[in-house]
Amino acid sequence: MTDEFAVVAQNVGKVYGAGATAFTALGDISISIRKGEFFTLLGPSGCGKTTLLRCIAGFETPTSGAILLGGRDITGVPPNQRPVNTVFQSYALFPHLTVEENVGFGLKMQGKSRAEIEAAVARVLALVKLEPFATRLPAQLSGGQQQRVALARALAPEPQVLLLDEPLSALDLKLRKAMQVELKRLQTETGITFIFVTHDQEEALTMSDRIGVISAGALLQVGSPHEIYEKPVNRFVADFIGETNFIEGEAGPAGVEIAPGLVLAVPAGRKGKVTLAVRPEQVRIGEPGEGLEAQVAEAVYMGTDTHYTLALAGGPSLVARVQSNAGPAPRLGDRVGVTVDAQTVQVLDE
C-alpha cells in the first residue's frame, strides 16, 4: 500500500512555544497523498496548512509524528537533501540573472554539467511556454511570466514532489484563473505530485484531484472536489466551500420543521434538532403554490447567474442561484413557490 503514496504524514503535530504560551499549529494530522496527484490543502489563514507544507519541505520539524516520502521516513532529513521543491508566494527570482539562468541556477548548484543544464532548461521552458523569453531579465516580465519562471526553476531538477504555497495570490483575477488551468496542465504533463496550499475555494475545486480541508490545526475532511462540495462532513466545511443556506429545524416523520407549521420535506434520518445545508443552486423557484410559499426580498445580478433572497412565509430566508437566461425572472416583491430536491440536502454535524 505504501508504494502508491508520494507523501504520508503520520500523526504530525507542531507546537510553538511551551507552557501557558504554547500554540498548537498542527494537532495530530494524518494524511496520505498519492503519487502523481494534484492534492490541495485548503483552509482559512492561520489554520496550519502552510505549517504542514513546511514540515513536508523540511523547513519545520514536527513536534510529534513523522513525514514519509516514497515510504522513507524523512522527518529529520535537511530540506536540501529531500527530492522536493517549493514555489512560494514570492517568486524570489534573481533580478540580475536571465530567465534561463534563473531556471538553471538550482541545477548549477547541484553540480550538473553545462550540457545537462542546457537540456533541462530548454525542456522546462518549453513546458511553461517561455522559450521566447529565455534571455530576458525578471524585470522585463509580467507577473504571470515571472510565476512561470519560478515554476520552471522548481520543475527543472525533476523533484518527486512539488510544493506550492499560495503561488497565485499575487496575480489579478483573470491571470489567476488562466494560471489555474496552466498549473493543472503542468501537473498532468509531468506526472509529478503537486501539493498546493490555498485559502481560495475556487482554486481548490478547479485544480485538485483531492482536497484536504484544515481548520485550527485539524484535518476535517479529505475527498474529491465533488465529495467535498456535495457531501461536507460538518458545518465548517459546508460553509467554507461555496455558498450554503443553513437551516435549523426539528426532524420528524414528515421531514424537517423549519418554522411552526412549515415543513421541508427532506429525510433527516434522525430525530430532534438538526442543521440542514442547502446549496443555492439546488433551490428552485416556481409558481405560487409549488412547494413552500415565499416572497422575493432581493435580487442580485451576477452576470451568468442571479442570486435571489427568498423570504419563506413564516420562516427563514433562502438564497437561490438561477441562471440569468433561464427564463422569465421574478421581480422584487413577487410571490413565488420554493422547492428543494431532497436528495441534495445535507444533514450536518456541528
TrEMBL record:
<dbReference type="InterPro" id="IPR008995">
    <property type="entry name" value="Mo/tungstate-bd_C_term_dom"/>
</dbReference>
<feature type="domain" description="ABC transporter">
    <location>
        <begin position="7"/>
        <end position="241"/>
    </location>
</feature>
<dbReference type="GO" id="GO:0016887">
    <property type="term" value="F:ATP hydrolysis activity"/>
</dbReference>
<dbReference type="Pfam" id="PF08402">
    <property type="entry name" value="TOBE_2"/>
</dbReference>
<keyword id="KW-1003">Cell membrane</keyword>
<comment type="similarity">
    <text>Belongs to the ABC transporter superfamily. Spermidine/putrescine importer (TC 3.A.1.11.1) family.</text>
</comment>
<dbReference type="InterPro" id="IPR013611">
    <property type="entry name" value="Transp-assoc_OB_typ2"/>
</dbReference>
<dbReference type="InterPro" id="IPR012340">
    <property type="entry name" value="NA-bd_OB-fold"/>
</dbReference>
<dbReference type="InterPro" id="IPR050093">
    <property type="entry name" value="ABC_SmlMolc_Importer"/>
</dbReference>
<keyword id="KW-0813">Transport</keyword>
<dbReference type="InterPro" id="IPR003439">
    <property type="entry name" value="ABC_transporter-like_ATP-bd"/>
</dbReference>
<dbReference type="GO" id="GO:0005524">
    <property type="term" value="F:ATP binding"/>
</dbReference>
<keyword id="KW-0472">Membrane</keyword>
<dbReference type="InterPro" id="IPR017871">
    <property type="entry name" value="ABC_transporter-like_CS"/>
</dbReference>
<dbReference type="InterPro" id="IPR027417">
    <property type="entry name" value="P-loop_NTPase"/>
</dbReference>
<dbReference type="InterPro" id="IPR003593">
    <property type="entry name" value="AAA+_ATPase"/>
</dbReference>
<dbReference type="InterPro" id="IPR005893">
    <property type="entry name" value="PotA-like"/>
</dbReference>
<keyword id="KW-1278">Translocase</keyword>
<dbReference type="Pfam" id="PF00005">
    <property type="entry name" value="ABC_tran"/>
</dbReference>
<keyword id="KW-0067">ATP-binding</keyword>
<keyword id="KW-0547">Nucleotide-binding</keyword>
<dbReference type="GO" id="GO:0015594">
    <property type="term" value="F:ABC-type putrescine transporter activity"/>
</dbReference>
<protein>
    <recommendedName>
        <fullName>Spermidine/putrescine import ATP-binding protein PotA</fullName>
        <ecNumber>7.6.2.11</ecNumber>
    </recommendedName>
</protein>
<dbReference type="GO" id="GO:0043190">
    <property type="term" value="C:ATP-binding cassette (ABC) transporter complex"/>
</dbReference>
<dbReference type="InterPro" id="IPR017879">
    <property type="entry name" value="PotA_ATP-bd"/>
</dbReference>
<comment type="function">
    <text>Part of the ABC transporter complex PotABCD involved in spermidine/putrescine import. Responsible for energy coupling to the transport system.</text>
</comment>
<comment type="subunit">
    <text>The complex is composed of two ATP-binding proteins (PotA), two transmembrane proteins (PotB and PotC) and a solute-binding protein (PotD).</text>
</comment>
